[in-house]
Amino acid sequence: MRSITDALTTARDHRWGLFTDLVFAIVWVTMVNLLFGVIDGPTWAYYMLMLAGIVAYFGFFASLERAKETEN
Questions:
Q1: Inter-residue contact 34 to 41 (CB < 8 Å)
Q2: How far is CA 33 from CA 9, 28, 45, in A?
Q3: What is the pLDDT of residues 20-68, one digit of tens each?
């Protein structure tokens, strides 16, 4: 089992990545909640959009990495 100091060290080493992940998750969940607050869609569609956030996350950051590679 990891100690708290190990967890804090890992968080410090990866702080921008963790921060970016957190911001992406907060923005995605907020957008889906706002959308479904307005249109009052079915529950299954709500959960599908929440799951689509996983695909969107990896797709966004994969395309970002590819753009950085082609730029250099």
A1: no
A2: 34, 9, 12
A3: 888 999 999 999 999 999 998 899 999 999 999 999 988 888 888 888 8
Say what angle helices 15-39 and 4-13 make with each other, to 10 degrees.
80
- Which of 50, 26, 24, 25 is closest to 36 using CA atoms? 50
* pTM exceeds 0.70 for this model: no
Cβ–Cβ under 8 Å, residues 45 and 62: no
Sign of CA dihedral 57, 58, 59, 61: positive
CA 53 from chain centre, in angstroms, equals 7
